[in-house]
Amino acid sequence: MKYSKHSIGKSQNGRRELPAAPGSEENPWDRDANLLASTPLIPGCMRHAYPAHEETQLCSISPRGFLFVMLRFFLFLPIVCCFSLPSAFAQLALSPPADQAPPAGSLSDPSISPGTAFLFDLESKFSKATAAGGGSAFASFFAEDAVTLANGKAPVIGRSAIGEQATWSPQQYQLTWTPDGARMSSVGDMGFTWGHYEGHSIDANNNPVVTGGRYFTVWKKQTDGSWKVELDASNEEPANSGDCCRLP
C-alpha cells in the first residue's frame, strides 16, 4: 500500500507523523521518517518527510526564530565586510582616474597598437643612426631593391645607387625626422610610416640652411628576419609650412 499526503495524520504534539504500517506496531522506516519530521532545521521551521521519497518543508518562523536568524546575519556581516572592503580599496588605488589620459603620441597610449609602436621604434633607430653616421648609415637601412622618390628627381633604385647619392657626413648635413603615424599590415610583415623631416646644413657663405617637408616610408620584413626600408618618398613643404597638407 502506498502512502499519500492525505493519509498523513497528526500526533499529540501537533506535528505530522506517518501512520504505522498495517500489521506492525512500529515500522523502522516510519520511526526514522517521524524522527526526521520532528527535527526542525531552523527555529520555527519544520521539515516533513513523506513516503514514496517525497519531501516538503513547512516554515512558520516564530518571533524568537526570526530574531535568531537576524542575529546571525548581523554577526556575520562585519566579517564579510572585513574581507571585501580591502580588496575594493586596492582596486580603486590601482585604477587610474577616468579623466587621466596618457599624453598624445606616447607609446604608452592604449590607442597605439603594438604594430604601430614597433614601426615607431624602427623609425627612431633609423633617425638616430643617420644623425650619428651621416649618409652611409642612412643607406644601410634600405633593402637591396629599395626605391627613393624626391621632388623633381628621377627615382633612385637599389641600395647601391642610394648609397652613391647619400655621401654627406654628420658635420656637413644633419637629417632628422619624426613620425606622425604608422600602419602595420594584418600579416605583420610590412608597414608604413609618415611624418615630418628637417635638414640642417651650411652654405658656401657659412650661413645655416634649413629645409623641411613630409616623408613616407615603407618597411618590409626580410627573409633573415630583419626589417628594411623598401620605399622612401619625400616632398618639400611650401614657404609657409603652416599651409602644408591643410584641408580647405
Descriptive overview:
This protein has 248 residues and is an alpha+beta fold. The protein is 30% helix and 30% strand. The chain has 5 helices and 10 strands. The protein has helices at residues 28-37, 63-94, 114-133, 135-139, 159-165; strands at 9-10, 16-17, 45-50, 54-59, 142-149, 156-157, 173-184, 190-202, 208-221, 227-236. The strands form 3 sheets. Strands 6-5-10-9-8-7 form a 6-stranded mixed beta sheet, with helices on one face. The chain has a two-stranded antiparallel sheet with strand order 1-2.
Rg value: 42 Å
* Principal-axis shape: elongated
Secondary structure class reads: alpha+beta
Strand content: 25-35%
How many angstroms does the end-to-end distance come to? 96 Å
The amount of helix comes to 25-40%
**Could you give a short account of the major beta sheet?**
6 strands, mixed
Q: Summarize model confidence as the mean pLDDT.
A: 73
Number of helices: 5
Order of helices and strands: EEHEEHHHEEHEEEE
Strand order of the largest sheet: 6-5-10-9-8-7
Poorly predicted regions: 1-19, 39-58, 89-107
Number of strands: 10
